[in-house]
């Protein structure tokens, strides 16, 4: 029964991670879409706003590499559209800043809420995962760290329950 409860909790953590990742991708896409529509206010129309926003949303799921690919594609499309460097440079800056904001502000909050740990724990897990396992560590850091935490809590509770059961009768 305890093992089933632990497996259920681990499944909930992984499901929360997937929900959080989906929400972060959606946020990146929406922020990109709104930012690129704001360019129209300055008479810098970009024909591929929706395409690039969708690309940013989908590729945000792959840490660093995905947003890099989306940025390169956006800059190439902007250069092909305009023939000069102003719009590609603006797109590079916009997507880079948005990516950093989502990474540094929204990832700890969203993932912390979805997997049930603090935002500081999420930041530590990402740093540790990247340092210990490189690229794959960045991808898997949050669910693995949250699952390890759940396993440690399970073992701790199990051990403390066993030690409480062994106390002599009448001992306080």
Describe it:
The protein contains five helices and no strands. With 172 residues, it is an all-alpha fold. It has one domain (2-161). α1 packs antiparallel against α2 and α2 runs antiparallel to α3. The protein is elongated, with a radius of gyration of 22 Å. The two termini are 29 Å apart.
- How many beta-strand elements? 0
Number of domains: 1
Query: Using only CA atoms, what is the Rg?
Result: 22 Å
For the largest beta-sheet, the strand count, sense and barrel status come to:
none
C-alpha termini separation: 29 Å
| Average pLDDT, all residues | 90
Topology:
Blueprint: H1 2-39, H2 49-59, H3 65-82, H4 86-115, H5 119-165
Characteristics of this structure?
172 residues; mainly alpha; 5 helices
Structure summarized in a few sentences:
With about 170 residues, this protein is mainly α.
